[in-house]
Amino acid sequence: MRTPTNPFKLAMREGRPQFGLWLGMADAYSAEILAGTGYDWLLVDGEHAPNDLRSTLGQLQAIASSASAFAQEPAPHAIARLPVGNTALVKQYLELGVQTLLVPMVDTPAQAADLAQAMRYPPQGVRGMGNALARSSRWQRYPNYIHEANDQVCLLVQAETVEAMRNLDAMAAIDGDDGIFIGPADLSASMGYPGEPGHPEVQAAIEDGIKRILQAGKAPGILATTEPQARKWLAAGALFVAIGIDTMLLTAAASALLAPFKNTAARGGNY
Q: CATH code at 16?
């Protein structure tokens, strides 16, 4: 058996936009439900959601199960966001079988280079040899995993500060850095506009960042929680765009369902 091709990485190289959904509920059951809805990728968030290695593993298994349950479409590509860029954590998440990692708060080329090394086996990197214990190699059922894995892992780093935007060209030039995700919320705070990702200066910085990432031959990505936002960044050239967050979708749907009943009660009307 050959190590599976990373479809997300392939799409990025071919310039095909991929639409994703953020998973913050830290629950395999909800992940399994959403895995059947047709998104290209789902991101299990370990930075701002209460996920650890065990809960991430459960969600990876749930997402993978949708391939057989919904045979008309492949399972979404599972991405994991680490809580922090750390060589040991990179290794552990890769061993779970995640091929694509998103790492927050990467500000310098040196950080990006260290992460690229952590993603790959020697001699290209420093990833430890433990595939006999790992889901990533399906416990050595992929017999050439250690020789094939380097080509299939995908590193996405997050540029979320003024410093990161200054270093963007150098970060994008790092071999093994496959894409750069711009974080509007943290970037707006770093620029002096906390809570204002729509501020014209922040928006201009994001547009310039996407352009520079594309010029370097790498894939730009972003999170947009409204359709106009998403379409704007797609038109600017973003190639991986999260178009929603599960917690926000649940809150919005539940509130919308209740609203007409609450409004009727407030007017003293009949149900």
A: 3.20.20.60
Cα gap 173→184, rounded to integer Å: 22
Q: Phi and psi at residue 259, in whole multiples of 5°? A: -50, -50
Task: Look at the chain and report how many structural domains it folds into.
Answer: 1
What values do phi and psi take at 245, rounded to 5? Answer: -130, 135
Give CA–CA dist 234/270, Å, rounded. 46
**Residues acting as catalytic residues:** 48
| Dist CA 84 CA 167 (whole Å) | 19
Phi-psi region of 101 (alpha: psi -120 to 50; beta: other; left: phi over 0): beta
Print the domain residue range for 147: 7-266
End-to-end CA distance of the chain: 61
Number of neighbouring beta carbons within 10 Å of residue 235 = 10
Strand 100-103 relative to strand 154-159, pairing: parallel
Q: What is the pLDDT of residues 213-267, one digit of tens each?
A: 999 999 999 999 999 999 999 999 999 999 999 999 999 999 999 999 987 766 6
* 153: its two tokens: 């892992």
Report yes or no on 20 lying in a domain: yes
